[in-house]
Amino acid sequence: MDDKENQPPAVRETAPLLNNGTQSRLVSFCSQHKRIIIPLAIMILLLPLLGLLALRNGHAHARNWTSPIIYPSPEIYGAGNWSEAFEKARTMVSKMSLEEMNNVTLGVTDGSNGCVGVSGGAPRHGFPGLCLHDAGNGVRNTDGVSGFASGLSIGASWNHSLALERARYMGAEFKRKGVNVALGPVVGPIGRIAQGGRNWEGFAADPYLDGILGAQTVVGLQESVIACVKHFVANEQETNRNPISTDDRTILSSSSNVDDHTMHELYVWPFQDLVHAGAGSIMCSYNRLNQTYACENSKAMNGILKGELNFQGFVVSDWVAQHSGIESADAGLDMAMPTTNYWNERQLEEAVNSGALNKSRLIDMATRIITTWYQFGQDEALPLGSGLPSNLLMPHNYTEAKDPASKSSLLQQAIESHVLVKNTNSALPLGRLKVLSVFGYDAIAQNTFVPDSRLFPQSWEVIGLGLPQLNGISSNVPVPDPPIIQNGTLIVGGGSGSNTPPYISSPFEALQARAYDDETAIFFDFVSSEPAIVASSEACLVFINEYSSEVWDRPGLADSASDELVNNVAASCNNTVVIIHNAGIRVVDAWVENPNITAVMYAHLPGQDAGRALVQLLHGDVSPSGRLPYTVGKQASDYGDLLGPCQAHGSSSPQCDFTEGVNIDYRSFLASNTTPRYEFGYGLTYTDFEYSGLRIDVNATATTEDADVAPVYVNGTTNDNQNNTAVVVGGLASLFENVGTVQASIRNTGDVAAAEVAQLYLQIPAASTNTHSQPTKVLRGFQKMMVQPGNSADVTFPVRRKDVSTWDVVRQAWVIPSGEFLVFVGKSVLDTPLTGSFST
Ligand code: BGC
């Protein structure tokens, strides 16, 4: 995030939260609403008393969740294809003074460019430092770049090659702007809680889908720059994400309390795939993990990331997520951003001199950073942030970063972002209409899109935040209403994951252009909640959205104003089509069963070509091919404890117990036998597909009780991995080897061409040691294929050893459990016409 210093005096998030302009709006809000604020303030002041009680329980409880200490920090040794870069870095670092090494590890203030972080250099040796910049959905806060479809939209695409193509174009834009490290992709949060504010930045509420799409993204980005995979780890909510200091106490960041089994099979799972894909850097997160801050958590960074996953790159702190000096270095943190109070005055150098820090650790920190710089060709990069002006409102040279060749990909991303979930009476495709009505605040482009110096540099990022939300954030009180973007179509979420589109193709503009071609008469009203409906309308399109942003979690899964609008239109129009631009799960049961509502489309966050893509889908120029990357419940309560963030409840040490284990999203619905409205993997198109011919050819042998299990990193010497030929970057090589395939045939039985997303789910028998979460089906393969009408195609799901393994907490190893593996192939987690099994 941007620097947002000078917090309101009473309650302050210790990490920067809001900038000056925002604060002055807050202050004026507070003075206008004294009558509400004063009682609220009294309540807040009383909270510490309640807190004392909760604290006693909290502390007793916290003892059950602790994070082991894993020292020393595994050193980089140039595993696999990192060896050449490592040798070059080693040579350079061997000539550096301790002061220079110290300097390489920290963020420095550099006002000459717009990089969100600049690391210290060692100019005497030719290392200029690094420009780090947001984020995973495109270059943020500048001109001359593209507004790509967001992570959630790529999740909805279920398309490996599209994820790769998008990342290639995106990486090239970062490079042309002089960025060395693109701060993305996001595979944490995964989406444990339905209302999570940042779920949209990542791909899907499933570790397998995240792992596959995230790995493609890493590969694509790293053709040009270094990817920074974030946020490591179990960073599942925004509420209490940073410590909050009041006058008399500090409320710590929430502690994600996660057991070892869940950690491996859910939260670390995608990170492992992305490290295996070669990720150059990892961002440690704001939360505490089993009581210890993620950026000083030696179990997470030394033990899991650099040990078990044999990560060779560097770990950078999330912005102001560093809370200690020597401890964080010892725990495996390599770079502190955007500045640091712990390492900035040569403290690391002094610690080495005094013996408080091992010299080898400081050498390792610098070597990891410089190795990564060489590994991804950054020694030949443009000057730091050369194309990123620090202030777009001041005169600057324009640097064009967009590639005309990316246009078709950007449109395709927007198309595949859409998931059609209801289509009765063949309402869609629309065909050529004589009269069309268009309603809803989300149909048009917002009426300003210029940098806003009072808020964040781009007004985009907080556009949905009304003052109640801002007030809620600053006082850490849940915000009252799920926010919507009132006057404009939603193409990206808010905060550091937002991007900067060069233009916005709004639905209404694109519909108008189509109306010209089709000679359609359009009536519209984007303002009224009860618009008048011209009786000759053949269809009524209603556009609504659901906004979400970094810093806060959504207070609900639907807003009543939008529901009211939809119901009002449907009351008078018997062919009502609802399009939702949603930055997260949006429930629709307030109206979805109304027979006048004939079609519903989740459009997600399509980026700059939102309208253009939608119109092609509505008119059947292309068939919808997105599938839900999360579960839509019938009502908010269907999500149970996984609906919203856990709260501090007056404690200074908020505790979030992840007691559901691996059963989040669809696994939670399956485990509790709850029927969702629309299940994970679901989505309609304009044709039908028939499944047949299941072939299972998996050759996996159960790991016997007395077998020598493949070793993972053991707490001890830093050479463990180097001497272990079974280990590659990403962990055990064998985990990534194929143990077989599952195949099936699909046939397009309709009369239009369309892409099908065939999905493989396995139900894996539990290992005898892992009894606490009921095993459910889990996604273990998917393939998207375009099939012409009447044609058939074969789909093949390669199955890796990882995909049939479970983490054995006693043996501290991945094992193949013994028993019957159930196999399900089909169109969604609940619609799997082909079933079979294999045994180990
Ligand atoms: C976010 C990161 C982001 C960083 C830099 C932090 O607040 O959590 O995702 O990359 O700011 O803007």
Count of individual domains: 3
- Number of helical runs? 19
Radius of gyration using CA atoms only: 26 Å
In CATH, the homologous superfamily of the largest domain goes by the name: Glycoside hydrolase, family 3, N-terminal domain
> How many strands, which pairing sense, and closed or not: the largest β-sheet?
7 strands, mixed
Instruction: Write the CATH architecture name of the largest domain.
Output: Alpha-Beta Barrel
User: Span between N and C termini?
Assistant: 49 Å
- How does the helix and strand content classify structurally? alpha/beta
The strand count comes to: 31
Name the bound molecules.
beta-D-glucopyranose
CATH topology of the largest domain: TIM Barrel
If strands are numbered along the chain, what order do they take across the biggest sheet?
2-3-4-5-6-10-13
Task: Provide the helix percentage.
Answer: 25-40%
Domain Fibronectin type III-like: 756-829
GO molecular function, one term: beta-glucosidase activity
Protein name: beta-glucosidase
Catalytic activity: Hydrolysis of terminal, non-reducing beta-D-glucosyl residues with release of beta-D-glucose
